[in-house]
Amino acid sequence: MLFNLLAPLGDLVPGLNLFTYLTFRTGGAIMTALTLSFLIGPRLIRWLKTKQTHGQPIREEYLPGHITKAATPTMGGVMILASVTASTLLWADLANPFVWIAVFVMVGYGAIGALDDYLKLTTQGTQGLAGRWKIAGQVVIGALATLAAMAALPEHLATSVALPGFKDLLLPLGALFILWALVVLVGASNAVNLTDGLDGLAIVPVAIAAACFGLIAYLVGRADFSGYLGIPYVPGTGELAILCGALIGGAMGFLWYNAPPAAVFMGDTGSLALGGALGAVALMTKHEIALAIIGGLFVLEAASVIVQVVSFKITGRRVFRMAPLHHHFEKMGWSEATIVIRFWIIAVVLAIVGLATLKLR
Questions:
Q1: Could you write out the DSSP letters of every residue in 288-327?
Q2: For 266-290, how does the pLDDT look when each residue is reduced to its tens digit (9 = 90+)?
Q3: How far is it, in rounded angstroms, from Cα 271 to Cα 265?
Q4: What is the rounded CA–CA span in Å between residue 202 and residue 206?
Q5: What angle do CA 352, 355, 361 make, to 5 degrees?
Q6: pTM of full prediction above 0.90
């Protein structure tokens, strides 16, 4: 909004030309989302505590340490959604379709997560919204976002996938691109959701991935840098760096209250929304495969659940002591802090590897 209001006056009023710079507005989005989180956080947590007498339901098979968290309120993702959305709309170019598509996915997936959290709280159970309805909602929102993205992308990129490590090589998928996009969006959303099981475990890797994709969006949106690196040039996607900046600020603001011992959990409200936002940015910057590397921690967590389920159904035996993966290490006796910090380290290493693919052409 500020860009649309103030950038046209840059030649008339000294200083307003700053609003034409993407880097300045991205920095503004980070600080705005962080500040809003600090302002919203205490009030939201107090309100959630008054509405959630028993806090988030905890599965009985969890370790005793998790049972003690039962009184902790959930749906803290509302704080993230509010701060990120407001910050993005304040600093981004509102005429840019990519921004609206990413916000649509984030808010839409957040709404599905909020309904899931609400049902868990009102029934004091761990089931929430039935899985088939949750996936159906994600598919509908993802399909609408994909169609909008295909219309906004350049024609030669609209239904193609860029392959890391190969300069200017695109894999045309045609109509199958919609299915590919749904795998990216729904997969990223649920992978972050599965990772969100310990205090601070998911939110820091989300911030790391958002920082990486902020850089990617900036590079992809500039003809000079994308040409030098041999990556697809997608005009207009630079504005997604502002959304990524807002995600960083919102994530760090939420971590302030989610750091052990957590005062609030993000719930599905936050995890589904954050994963969806990352998936949408990856899709529109044509770096979906890079997301699987940069967000490799989320992939590992999701894969551990898939392997566990498939193995148990086929052989009747479990590969892990408990899935997702972080619970396996808890069962092995690792402390929560040890798991979280080591997983953060893994997230940093994978992010570096993912960014390295930009140059390996």
A1: HHHHHHHTHHHHHHHHHHHHHHHHHHHHS--SSSSSSHHH
A2: 999 999 999 999 999 999 999 999 9
A3: 10
A4: 6
A5: 130
A6: yes
Question: DSSP labels for 41-97?
Answer: HHHHHHHHHHH-SS-S---TTS-HHHHTTTTS---THHHHHHHHHHHHHHHS-TT-H
Mean pLDDT on 323-348: 94
DSSP-based three-state secondary structure for 171: strand
Write out the two tokens for 51.
Answer: 């509405």
User: Which of 268, 247, 272, 251 lies closest to 109, judged by CA?
Assistant: 272
Distance, CA of 86 to CA of 179 (rounded, Å): 31
| Structure tokens, 32 | 């705005």
Q: How far apart are CA 188 and CA 173, in angstroms?
A: 20
Q: Which amino acid is present at 45?
A: I
Alpha-helical segments (H) within the chain: 2-6, 22-51, 64-67, 77-91, 97-123, 131-152, 176-195, 203-220, 223-229, 240-258, 267-284, 288-294, 296-315, 325-331, 336-356
Joined together, the tokens standing for residue 313 give 């159904």
Which position has the token pair 């940015």? 281
